[in-house]
Amino acid sequence: MMSSSSPPPPPSIPSGGGSLFRGYTKLCKGIAVILLLVHLLIQLFPSAVTYLALVPGRTIPFAWNLITGGYVELTIPGVIISIIGLLLFGKLLEPLWGSKELSKFIFVVNFATSVCVFITAIALYYTTQEESYLYAPLSGFYGVLTGLLVGIKQLMSEQELNLFVLKIKAKWIPSLVALISVIVSFFVKEFVSYLPVILFGIYMSWIYLRYFQRRLETGLKGDPSDEFSFSSFFPEFLRPVLDPIASIFHRLLCGRSERADGRGQTLDTTPLPGSDSIEANRRRERGQRALEQRLAEKLAAVKSSEGTSQDASDKV
Questions:
Q1: What DSSP string describes 84-115?
Q2: What are the boundaries of the region Disordered (predicted)?
């Protein structure tokens, strides 16, 4: 039994067959079912791709494909990756955010990513006059998946996560996924269509979490901590170059640094000295508590199964 004075075990995604298939939330399981059903619908009725996937040349008047396109997976590996990623990442984030906030996050990131991909495709068409940019179906849940990775980076940045045989800190996973995606797109032509979805998913989720998500502990919006700045996605030597550029977008999104509270007083949104690190520590602590709770549940399940086996052997 672990004493209260002993340090907690290093947080990681629990491994093992018993816990792998437990703890998934109803929200994530529901969205996983939607992904599977849409994939089956596309296989049975291929013409449905025209109406559900994001086809920039048909988005007007079929504007709903800005929402439905993210839930269309055209390949079996794609739907498997999307479902597994959603269940695993949602299992980490929903206990910290709640079902309402997670569903809002998924909707906002999916829609914002689709809008950015649509604008990019239209711009490429007018630049190159290639009609393939207008009528090639664009789809996939990867924008939301990479967005969920950004959420994990925000809440559990210093924690090591087990990725198959590798251990990597959560704060580097979105950047690593983006880098690998760019490299793969140079060698696999079919992967190029997924690249904008992945990159815009990372960026739009960061925009939402950085400036718009309401924090329950403070009642304010966004996460102004240095640990979640735009330059935190890049190596240390690039940050002096990126910070001035990021400050331009910060002023565009935030406007003036003052706003009024409910009593008519103005609040300076510039963080107080030390408040960034305090906020980041609170988020890390919440993430650590959630992971430790899952580890404790796994240990209790193992002990319970061992006790059942021992009782059975005693009876024999």
A1: HHHHHHHHHHHHHH-HHHHHHHHHHHHHHHHH
A2: 261-286
Cα–Cα distance, 173 to 179 (Å, whole number): 10
Question: Rounded to two decimals, what is the model's pTM?
Answer: 0.73
% pLDDT > 90, the chain: 39
For tokens 């940050």, name the residue.
Answer: 239
Q: In one letter, which amino acid is 203?
A: Y
First to last CA, the chain: 29
The residue extents of the domains of the chain are 17-223
For 2-6, 20-24, 303-307, which range has the lowest pLDDT when averaged over its residues? 2-6
C-alpha pair distances (Å), 103 with each of 11, 26, 27, 32, 142 = 25, 11, 8, 13, 16
Task: Report the distance separating Cα 310 and Cα 77, nearest Å.
Answer: 42
Alpha-carbon distance 271 to 273, whole Å?
Answer: 6
Residue 96's pLDDT is 87
Amino acid (1-letter code) at residue 234: F
pLDDT band at 103 (very low <50, low <70, confident <90, very high): very high
Q: Could you write out the DSSP letters of every residue in 24-77?
A: --HHHHHHHHHHHHHHHHHHH-GGGHHHHSB-GGGTTT-TTHHHHGGG---SHH
pLDDT over threshold 60, residue 35: yes
CATH number of 17-223: 1.20.1540.10
Nearest to 60 by CA among 123, 127, 134: 134
- Among candidates 213, 208, 217, 218, which has minimal Cα distance to 267? 218
Contact 18, 302 (CB under 8 A): yes
Alpha-carbon separation of residue 188 from 77, 92, 173, 185 (angstroms): 16, 31, 22, 5
